[in-house]
Write a structure and sequence with these properties.
Layout (H helix, E strand, L loop, with lengths): L11 H31 L6 H31 L6 H33 L4 H4 L2 H20 L8 H39 L9 H44 L2 H20 L1 H12 L1 H10 L4 H7 L1 H28 L1
Helix pairs in contact: 1-2, 1-8, 1-9, 1-10, 2-3, 2-5, 2-8, 2-9, 3-5, 3-6, 3-7, 6-7, 7-8, 7-9, 9-10
Length: 335
Amino acid sequence: MNERNSDEHLSITASIFLTAWFSLSSFVAVTGNAVVLWLFYKNEFLRTISNRYLASLSVADFSVGFFVDPVWLASRCWIQPPLHTMLLEVIQVLWIHTTATTTFNICCVSVDRFIAIRFPFRYQDFVTVKSCYAVIILVWLSSSVLSFSTFFLDGSKKEMFLSLTCIIYVISLLVVSFCYVSIFKAARKQFTRIIAQESPRNCDKNIRVLAVQNLKAIKTIGFVLGACIFTWMPSLVLIIVDCHYILTKDESKIRKLFYVVWPWVDAIAFTSSAINPLIYYLRNEDFRRAFRRTFHCLPCLHLENSPAIGLKSEKNRMERNGETTGQLESQQKEQ
């Protein structure tokens, strides 16, 4: 650090702040994703095909908190290795692999929901357990190939970064955006038609429940996607700026971006690994129920799991169902 100018490395205050940030993000990512994966393993009703893609994403997020965050804390905040060293190459491989696995897994979740809502009667034909595992394996293999390919492209770094940016960010974002916009429109139309249709008796209760579940699932995907875009978009913008300085061969700007700006952008990006499990718990009733059932010994869950509260919530649910049924019957009589 002494060989570099003072404006080309992090200050002590910034290093301490980022150390706390990476430490907290790592703890939340490891703990939250470990809980999600444990619930997925212990509860058979959670092992749906859609949740298998979410479990794959949780594995990627867990690896970020367990491996990547500590490496970034030590190397980017304190060691700050010189450019063109082996340690920097390892950091680059980890960064590409982490980004690829996260964005590719979110693509899988979005495409899975797209098929489930746009082709509900063909979903079981298109998406099977075997095909799900095949896609997950392909995601992890392709991420590894993309990351380790950096060792064999020493002479064309700028072309490599532009290609990886296009594959990992641009194409993935286009696929996810297309799927999300399509399934949101389809689910909203389906939900509105089922709730406000002219003959409620012709509508099976299971279809109405499925429509509500699909809409909630889409909102969950939207929260995950929104968090991912918010946390990873600064990286995309900075990659474009970095490529510009590489093309112009401005070494001082490149070093300043690497040592001063990138640690902050990476901290924002890796925070998504800590946010995702919180979204699963807050938005997914199945995960919440499995969490309460598995960790019922926690004091904060005693009140929620008490028989009186359970009977009261069941009574409220039955009353809401009765009110809904009465409203549907009154609408039919008026017609």
